[in-house]
Prior knowledge:
By secondary structure, this protein is mainly α. The chain folds into two domains: 1-82; 85-184, no CATH class. It has seven helices and two strands, in the order αααααββαα. It has helices at residues 2-50, 62-80, 87-101, 105-114, 118-137, 151-154, 163-183, and strands at residues 140-141, 147-148. α1 (2-50) runs antiparallel to α2, α3 packs across α4 and α5 (118-137) crosses α7 (163-183).
Amino acid sequence: MKSRETLxxxxxxxxxxxRRKVMQIEGMIxxxxxxxxxxxxxxxxxxxxxGIHDPAHFAYPTYAKAAMQRRENLKRSADxxxxxxxxxxxxxxxxxxxxxxGVEPQQLLQFLQENNQLPAMFADVxxxxxxxxxxxxxxxxxxxxxxxxxAEFFGPRQEAAGADSDAAxxxxxxxxxxxxxxxx
Length: 184
């Protein structure tokens, strides 16, 4: 009977946590969209001020170029927020950690609830998923330029589809851009 009550509490907590996360993510996406719209207006105003609308033009305003890049980054970030942690991911992590600690999953869940650690576990699972998307989308090479099979370290590559492959490409591009910016 106690395990049933624990499961009911777990489900209620998970529903509430998902609601909070969805509201938070929707708010972030709306804020990113608003900021992108503001940047669109600023870009148009700068183009009108300069009288040049072609970004390839040699005299195109630097501010407009930078604003366009920020706008694209915001849009990319909003798209990446759509990659979420599912119920199965949380359950898998809970079971895995309970085995590592040598306790029943219900005991670990109760401990995590009592110590307000479920949000930290959620964040950890999300980081792991994001890392998996990036690793699956990346090609790792050694110093000689040979491609390294990452399956030994991260498991076999999964064929990502739709948003996951787009998120992987975006994350890889951002990492490359960041590396280029750091080297300059």
